[in-house]
Specification:
Elements: E1 12-16, H1 19-22, H2 44-49, H3 72-86, E2 90-94, H4 97-100, H5 111-126, E3 130-136, H6 142-148, H7 155-171, E4 177-181, H8 191-195, H9 205-230, E5 235-242, E6 245-247, H10 252-274, H11 279-287, H12 298-304, E7 310-314, E8 318-320, E9 344-345, E10 351-352, H13 354-368, E11 372-376, H14 394-412, E12 417-423, E13 443-445, E14 457-459, H15 461-471
Parallel strand pairs: 1-2, 1-12, 2-3, 3-4, 4-5, 5-7, 6-8, 7-11, 11-12
Antiparallel strand pairs: 9-10, 13-14
Helix pairs in contact: 3-5, 7-9, 9-12, 13-14
Family: Belongs to the glycosyl hydrolase 1 family.
GO biological process, one term: carbohydrate catabolic process
Organism: Niallia alba
Length: 477
């Protein structure tokens, strides 16, 4: 253990999972089919993520990892008990939209779905674990995609507002922290994942994505409005996939290119946090001949109902160059990046940059002056059990230790951070690849990429390490 600076009293240490990567039970108790339920493993996965959907039903002969995932739906009590043993103060999780409204446009919610999350929240609160809930985490009811065009259609705003209001009314006394959309900027990079977008021939894909983005931004504001009216003590945040973009050189063209790439992410949060479209976005729309359809009240809604805090994920920084000779892409990450010669990479080609975590946190706080919540951070790696079943994931401990230390430095810098929920405290399905072998957890789940295994849970070496971090409130890492 390394001595560290103490974190604020009441700091929300914990972990983060998503419904579609953990729950399984994909059609159980009235749940409807979602976008993620149509993402197989293998070569077709990425093509579908980009908006090329071959069918609105699962295809025979394909393996869909979300259908069983790690069966958190039936095993949540066992898993939450393990989180409690680590001392979790919070658990970030998402609600499956299609468990509550199976088709998205249903007149009444599905009681079995509502009760399932009631039971989860009760189990968490029994151990003193604060639920941190994402309303939409990469899963749109497939009926809304098939019959409405998903977020292309303004009607999705009404469906989402109804869904969010149902959640706030049901869980107003159990959940304080909410986020509207997970990694909202991912809409631009993986449009089917981020917004259920399926492109038709002849469509202006860029305009479609930004029109869908506008609808999500309006829906987010309406959710903030509804949540604060139902319980003024609720904290409703936004969430972005963050990571500082470095210019490869001090060439002003590289510096400007890095700034523009960061703005791809900041655009959404600028609107959700500042309440209006930034000037650079308006110029971008003009230069690209993009016309966004807005209604009369939209600007006022965005201005009045901004978020309470900024949630963000951080896994890696990015590097960009305008020189085509050195513009060699790093594999593995959704965000294009050239190789940074100063940084190591993970087994999936993601840069490992703890100092970038501190830089990113400072950049976000300088920009928005709102509390930050680190809701994803972690290392995806291949964990191989030894003969006795033990998993000595020192590489994960090393990664997390360095990032936690840089987070403490950011707090010393004056950045207000209210919590840290590392990604995948228990092994879950990878969102990007659909694999199980890309593991993040402190808890090992016996399941392979083909769906074989007992689903038994076992502790890794990092389990006890993180337990000590939490009990010391970050004083020892």
């Amino acid at each position: 253990m390394i001595d560290s600076m103490a974190f604020p009293k009441g700091f929300l240490w914990g972990g983060a999972i998503a419904a579609n990567q953990a729950e399984g039970a994909y059609l159980e108790d009235g749940k409807g089919l979602t976008t993620v339920d149509l993402l197989p493993t293998g070569d077709k996965r990425f093509e579908i993520m980009m908006g090329n959907l071959p069918s609105y039903e699962p295809l025979e002969g394909e393996f869909y990892p979300s259908h069983e995932a790690i069966d958190f739906y039936h095993r949540y009590k066992e898993d939450i008990a393990l989180f409690a043993e680590m001392g979790f103060k919070s658990l970030r999780l998402s609600i499956s939209w299609a468990r509550i409204y199976p088709n998205g446009d249903d007149s009444t919610p599905n009681e079995a779905g509502l009760q399932f999350y009631d039971d989860i929240f009760d189990e968490l609160l029994k151990y003193g674990i604060e639920p941190v809930v994402t309303i939409a985490h990469f899963d749109v009811p497939i009926n809304l995609v098939k019959n409405y065009g998903s977020w292309k259609n303004r009607k999705l705003v009404d469906f989402f507002e109804k869904y969010a209001t149902t959640l706030f009314e049901r869980y107003k006394d159990k959940v304080k922290y909410w986020m509207t959309f997970n990694e909202i900027n991912m809409l631009l990079h993986l449009p089917f994942v981020g917004a259920g977008l399926v492109f038709e021939e002849g469509e202006d894909k860029l305009e479609v994505k930004y029109q869908a983005a506008h609808h999500q931004l309006i829906a987010s504001s309406l959710a903030v409005k509804a949540g604060h009216e139902i319980n003024p003590n609720m904290k409703i945040g936004c969430m972005l996939a963050a990571g500082q973009t470095y210019p490869y050189s001090c060439n002003p063209d590289d510096v400007f290119d890095a700034m523009e790439k960061d703005r791809d992410s900041f655009f959404f949060i600028d609107v959700q946090s500042r309440g209006k479209y930034p000037g650079y976005a308006k110029r971008f729309f003009k230069d690209k001949n993009i016309s966004i359809k807005m209604e009369e009240q939209d600007e006022a809604l965005l201005a009045e109902y901004t978020v309470d805090y900024i949630g963000f994920s951080y896994y890696a920084s990015r590097t960009t160059s305008t020189n085509p000779e050195i513009n060699k892409q790093t594999s593995g990450n959704v965000f294009g990046s050239i190789e940074n010669p100063y940084l190591e990479k993970s087994e999936w080609g993601w840069t490992i940059d703890p100092k970038g975590f501190r830089i990113t946190a400072n950049q976000l706080y300088d920009r928005y002056q709102k509390p930050l919540f680190v809701v994803e951070n972690g290392l995806g790696a291949i964990d191989i059990p030894e003969e006795d079943g033990e998993i000595k994931d020192d590489y994960r401990i090393d990664y997390l230790r360095k990032h936690v230390l840089e987070m403490s430095e950011a707090i010393e810098d004056g950045v207000e951070i209210i919590g840290y929920t590392s990604w995948g405290p228990i092994d879950i399905v990878s969102a990007s690849t659909g694999e199980m072998k890309k593991r993040y957890g402190y808890i090992y789940v016996d399941k392979d990429n083909e769906g074989n295994g007992t689903l038994n849970r076992s502790k890794k070496k990092s389990f006890d390490w993180y337990k000590e971090v939490i009990v010391s409130n970050g004083e020892k890492v």
